[in-house]
Design goal:
Blueprint: E1 2-3, E2 7-10, H1 17-24, H2 27-33, H3 41-49, E3 57-62, E4 67-75, E5 90-95, H4 104-119, E6 124-130, H5 134-142, E7 146-154, E8 163-171
Helix pairs in contact: 1-3
Length: 176
């Protein structure tokens, strides 16, 4: 578990299914992240047990309320065409719509980056955002990600047919 004064990142639990469904059923949330809105609590539970069931995926929890409000993680790849380097994980995150614009994703991403730097030998991270979601790009840039100048397109993501993805990278050894 990782934490700041305001949030903590912890692994997902089956008991988080209601909270996940509450935000993941919202079409705008999934569309901005590239996945279909969840159709039921059972679907959200299945996502917790499969997609989120790995050591590098965390629930974003508000410490004040104990409520799960989003997800943060990294992995070997995603079902998208980001131009990653060999061994370079892809970063992904989202937060429920009521929490947009509150700096929660930026805080969670910084926390995860600090964790990666302290506990791994990963040299860089890659991520991207749909060009019609510039707020996600601002989160990455605030955390040190730099635009690569590349644009990916993906037809496998929900709502993503020929939808451009701006690619950003965080190189831990840049400038050293």
């Amino acid at each position: 578990m990782m934490e700041t004064d305001r949030i903590l990142l912890r692994h997902w639990q089956d008991s988080d299914a209601d909270a996940l469904y509450e935000y993941a059923k919202e079409p705008e949330v999934g569309e901005r992240a590239g996945w279909q809105p969840h159709a039921s609590r059972e679907e959200s539970l299945e996502i917790i047990r499969t997609v989120f069931n790995n050591p590098t995926c965390w629930a974003i929890v508000l410490k004040e309320t104990g409520k799960v409000v989003g997800a943060m993680g990294y992995g070997p790849s995603c079902d998208c065409s980001l131009p990653s380097r060999e061994g370079e994980p892809t970063v992904g995150y989202w937060v429920g719509k009521p929490y947009w614009g509150m700096g929660i994703c930026t805080e969670a991403l910084r926390l995860m980056i600090d964790h990666i730097r302290k506990t791994t030998t990963i040299p860089s991270l890659v991520s991207g955002h749909f060009t019609d979601n510039p707020a996600s790009g601002r989160v990455m840039e605030k955390c040190g990600f730099v635009p690569t100048g590349e644009t990916a397109f993906d037809n496998n993501l929900y709502g993503g047919e020929n939808k451009p993805i701006r690619v950003l990278r965080l190189d831990f050894f840049a400038g050293i």
